[in-house]
Amino acid sequence: MSETPLLGELRRLIAVDGPITIERYMALCLGHPVHGYYRTRDPLGEAGDFTTAPEISQIFGELLGLWTAEVWHGLGRPAPFRLVELGPGRGTLMADALRALRAAAPDCLAAADLHLVETSPTLRAAQARALANAAPTWHEAVDTLPDGPAIVLANEFFDALPVRQYQRTERGWCERRVGLAGDALAFGLSPEPTPEITADGAPGAILTLPAVALDLTRQLGRRLAREGGALAAIDYGDLYGGTADTLQAVARHRFADPLEAPGETDLTAQVDFAALARAAAGAGAVVHGPVTQADFLLALGLAQRAGRLVARANPVQGAAVRAGADRLIDRTTRGMGNLFKVMGLAGPGQPGLPGF
Predict the structure, then answer these.
(1) Do residues 298 and 306 lie in contact, with contact meaning Cβ atoms separated by under 8 Å?
(2) Partners of 166 in beta bridges
(3) Sign of CA dihedral 93, 353, 140, 339
(4) In this structure, are residues 305 and 62 in contact, taking their beta carbons and an 8 Å threshold?
(5) Closest CA to 29 of 220, 234, 251
(6) Model's pTM, two decimal places?
(7) 5-162+211-346 has which fold?
(8) How far apart (Å, rounded) are the C-alpha atoms in residues 33 and 119?
(9) Residue 164 dihedral angles phi and psi, to the nearest 5°
(10) pLDDT single digits (tens) 236-270
């Protein structure tokens, strides 16, 4: 086990309080104010741990910019409206989206009041550079977003929110926890089952409950129902839920042990879109999709946009454009176009959302 700055704190915490939930472990590993993964680094790109769609192709952000414009027109062109991104990374997606708005929908751009929900000081600095001319306002959480119609973009955001996990035993569903085996971190189970969990499952099955994501989805759903607007959530996830251990760690573009280097690896859990859809609908929002990323981007015009870019590029640039676009809509078993899903939320009585 790698000796990371956070590991010593986890050992002391567990020694005093006993084993901690997966939810608390994820929250500390990703968001610890001093040693948290997202607090201390830029994790993106070839030099980082993973690459997201906006870093692969400019077309991704451009299409979401045009999606924003079409949704804004459907809302009746409110001015101002809150243009919000949750977890904006380096600001690449939003920079591409704003460039598309500047060219195709300058009236929408003029009405946009930009807000970014970001906790990482390192990534905030990158966003400030990328969006220097856009005057964004930063937020630690959605609670401080101003009222008014909002169009919200969330790419690879929900998968990084802490989850709770339960394992089926002969006693019932017992919550998974992180404890100590000597000096090493180890998974274990709470001694007593959680009676509220009544799902079906074979012995050993693991149930992942995205409690934080569900609370946030309800909050956003209530806001959209009250104020109007829309949300596009794009993430690695499952259409129908189920019982499986979807907790994973990534370091240097490879899968890693989630307990190996706390605070130094990215931790995620596959998004349960079915659960999020139920939460949003229960809060009064209208759910669109989910659909695969390939279907969503193709419906928005990815093939046409790629064709126009290739036509203006030299052969080397054109090949790069094609490769990036193809990667976004790759429908093979492990391809982004298949693994990633897109769910839309809107206020009641609004027109249908593009792409669904």
Answers:
(1) no
(2) 175, 207
(3) negative
(4) yes
(5) 251
(6) 0.95
(7) Rossmann fold (3.40.50)
(8) 9
(9) -105, 145
(10) 998 776 667 889 999 888 999 999 999 999 999 99
